[in-house]
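User: tokens in, sequence out, please.
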């Protein structure tokens, strides 16, 4: 199902590339955009995870550097019946986390320094279980590709002002139409991100709660992260807004970005769903935490 969603997303993004190329430069521009789209899709599949980690300055850590955190991820991965992912640390005071990678065998989870400093060990377990749920659901491929191609669409639209505006006869829009395209094309990509993120987060919340065995650990973590995201700026996320949908909580809400086009469901609704799940799991045999 997730591979089908990935294929549909790539097809939609490719179509948007073609449309932007045609509107900027006619049939010649569409042909160039098609080649760019093919290259971008191939690059995103094999390299987007590394690119996103590099964008946020993520540094891979070992068990020796952070034994408690590394060991926690290892226990959660074992409970989720997943291969051990690579573990990364992001030097940001805002508490947040994301997962990436094209499949469980090539997955990585990343947490900010703020997450480890501000949350309890139980809350960190809930967050990392949520990220491993994305890996298990194979959401990470579509999340990563979405981030890469959304950024590429924005870049292509910006190029349109230089290569498609003015007196270019191949451009059916003219300068005013090109300027409108610069605004509308990134918005279209944003809508795709929103549609994906809003549906996948609820699923990952539920599976993450089942992996760690304590839905309220994740509910408590979401409340803390949401409050902090409005107070603590994530500088690298602000510079790379196309990756915002990958985080467990929107990292852009700390400065300059409102919730008009939020990539995440309402946090209060997510917490309410987790509370309901906790009531269902209460007293169920085998509902336990990740600790040995």
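Assistant: Sequence out:
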């Amino acid at each position: 199902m997730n591979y089908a969603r990935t294929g549909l997303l790539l097809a939609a993004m490719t179509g948007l590339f073609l449309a932007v190329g045609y509107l900027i430069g006619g049939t010649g521009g569409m042909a160039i955009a098609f080649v760019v789209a093919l290259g971008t899709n191939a690059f995103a599949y094999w390299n987007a995870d590394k690119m996103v980690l590099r964008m946020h300055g993520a540094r891979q850590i070992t068990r020796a550097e952070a034994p408690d955190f590394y060991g926690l991820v290892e226990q959660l991965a074992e409970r989720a019946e997943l291969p051990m992912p690579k573990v990364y640390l992001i030097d940001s005071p805002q508490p947040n986390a994301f997962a990436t990678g094209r499949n469980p065998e090539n997955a990585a989870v990343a947490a900010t320094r703020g997450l480890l400093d501000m949350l309890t060990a139980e809350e960190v377990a809930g967050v990392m279980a949520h990220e491993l749920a994305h890996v298990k659901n194979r959401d990470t491929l579509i999340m990563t590709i979405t981030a890469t191609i959304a950024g590429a669409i924005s870049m292509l639209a910006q190029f349109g002002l230089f290569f498609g505006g003015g007196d270019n006869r191949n451009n059916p829009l003219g300068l005013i139409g090109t300027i409108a395209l610069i605004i509308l094309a990134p918005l279209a990509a944003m809508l795709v991100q929103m549609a994906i993120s809003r549906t996948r987060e609820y699923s990952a919340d539920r599976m993450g709660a089942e992996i760690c065995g304590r839905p309220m650990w994740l509910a408590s973590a979401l409340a803390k992260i949401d409050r902090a995201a409005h107070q603590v700026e994530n500088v690298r996320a602000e510079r790379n807004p196309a990756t915002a949908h990958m985080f467990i909580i929107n990292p852009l809400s700390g400065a300059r970005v409102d919730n008009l086009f939020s990539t995440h469901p309402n946090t209060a609704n997510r917490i309410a769903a987790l509370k309901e799940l906790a009531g269902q799991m209460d007293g169920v045999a085998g509902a336990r935490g990740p600790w040995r």
